[in-house]
Amino acid sequence: MPRFSWLMLLWLVLPGASAGAGEPVEDAPQTSSDRGWFENPTRTRGLLGSTALPLHAGEGLFGQQAVFATVAEVGLSERVSLSVASAFPVYAMARLFSDIPFSLMAGLKVSRPLSDKLHLAFGVQGGSFDTDLYLLDTINAVGAYGILTYGTGDAHVSLTVQPFVAWGSFHSGSVMVLPMLGGFVRLGEHWGLAGEVALSPINGISGAFGFATAGARFMGQHWSLDLGLLAEQQWKDTDKPSVLPGGSFLFHWR
Length: 254
Fold this sequence. Notes:
Elements: H1 3-13, H2 32-35, E1 60-65, E2 69-75, E3 80-86, H3 88-94, E4 103-113, E5 118-130, E6 138-151, E7 155-168, E8 171-188, E9 191-200, E10 209-219, E11 223-234, E12 242-253
């Protein structure tokens, strides 16, 4: 499967409340409010995936993720958020005088706090992408996921498990699974480090593969910029991993 198609599949299936009451214990990491910092507007997401931390009601984000995907997410309540994404704007600018591939992804996430620092989220997500490539004209995927996040908006680690079904124009449906471990630590008021590792061990429309991301996140109260690298390895018919640069810029509102 061409690497571009693999990246489209990854984009389709990956999903998009700080510490609460009580006095901080001795030697515990300080939160945004303890330091006098603004709340981390990116706490709900990793470089590619999502966390179980929720958006506030009416809070949202909009912008470009991984350069090619235009994304938006809004908190419908303190526990429920809706996300949509499309590569249409980028393709429309690149292909003004030819057919523009259709792409659309949507998802719904429900978050539930289990304690001050432990959150659980579950949701559904899916979409379609017209790759315009030989033997795999369209990639479709739909799946459910669960996320367990421990920590605060300034320092957290998340485990995501997502089974999904993917199929293409010339490929019948295949059930796959994507476990992913990700984390973020805020090292200053305006920046931090984030990363993820994932493995899809089941052969399906893309074959078994793994990937890892690492990068720096810069942020203000109403914007965020991610700069990093994505390394991917398909376990069959591939000698060396591929490493790709990436960037995301998002506007956040409250």
